[in-house]
Each structure stands twice: as C-alpha cells, then as structure tokens.
Amino acid sequence: MIKGESTVSEKGQLVIPKEIRQALDVQRGDKLSWVMNDDGTIRVTLAKGDLLTLRGRTKSGGKSVSVEEMDEAIKAGAAASERAGYQSSGAVSGRRGGRSGTARNRG
C-alpha cells in the first residue's frame, strides 16, 4: 500500500504525492477519474484513454514486430515447450480474427 497526503490550494488544486505519481506513471496532461463512494471514501484512478495515449510509456528494446511475427514466435515457443515435454493448454492455438486490443478476464 502506498499512502500520501496533499493540501488543497486556494484554487482547489492538489499535488499528487511523488510516490503515487510514480506508481501510476502519471504524466503531465494525464486525466484522473474520481469516484466518491456512499461511505465518503474517494477512489482516484488514471482515466483510461485509447491505446495511442500509451505511446512512449514503455521502453522498446528493439524493433517493432507484426502480429504475424508474434504468432510465429508463439508457435516456435510452443513447439520448443512440447519438445521439452511440457503440455500445451491450447490457449495460444493460432486462432485468427477477433483481435480487439483488449485483454479479457477469463477467470
């Protein structure tokens, strides 16, 4: 758990504590979403934007790769795992289509 404290300025502005800014990777221009619960607690989260807003947030270790190159790497890794005696769950079975760019919770 990370805790922090802020003081409200005369203009109603807050400074987000450094530890929390770093943990959320909050950068200039980012939007925050505020929710006040019935019990008075407030939840603040980094507002979700489209994928383009994430551009530049992570360091790239090399060149970009296509979806096809990723699929080939997955197949090669699965084949190597099978040769090593691991069972495949079929979760990455080379299915095509239906890619939306969002993760789904299958739990």
TrEMBL record:
The keyword Secreted does not apply. One of its GO terms (molecular function) is DNA binding. Residues 78-107 are annotated as: Disordered. Residues 6-52 form the SpoVT-AbrB domain. It comes from the Bacteria. Keywords: DNA-binding. This is AbrB/MazE/SpoVT family DNA-binding domain-containing protein. It comes from Marinobacter nanhaiticus D15-8W.
